[in-house]
Amino acid sequence: MTLAITAGLLVMGAVYLLLKREMLRIVLGFVLLGHAANLVIMAAGGASRRDAPFGAPDDLSTVADPLPQAFVLTAIVIAFAITILMLVLAVTGRDQDDDTTVESEIDEEGRS
């Protein structure tokens, strides 16, 4: 239950940040969304009902499934690469990339 609430709060924060216009807030929104997805994957793996994925227990039904953990590790690496790419795009963006120009400002500059 705690994982579900935490994932929900992370998604809520991610949606809030993604709706902002600043590129840094959008990047942070994607980071939060990635963390929420990782928590959902870990919760789907049933980590709370099982033991550690390593060792040699007597009962193999209590060993945690390593597949969701491998998925999360892969997702962390991919999210890190996407975050770096988005931050580079945010830094190298030009001032002309802003699309908040009003029609009247365009007409005053002589362009139509």
Automatic annotation (TrEMBL):
The keyword Mitochondrion does not apply. It comes from the Bacteria. It is found in: Cell membrane. The keyword Transmembrane applies. Its main location: membrane. It is a multi-pass membrane protein. The chain crosses the membrane at residues 26-47, 67-91. Keywords: Cell membrane, Membrane, Transmembrane, Transmembrane helix. Belongs to the CPA3 antiporters (TC 2.A.63) subunit C family. This is Cation:proton antiporter subunit C.
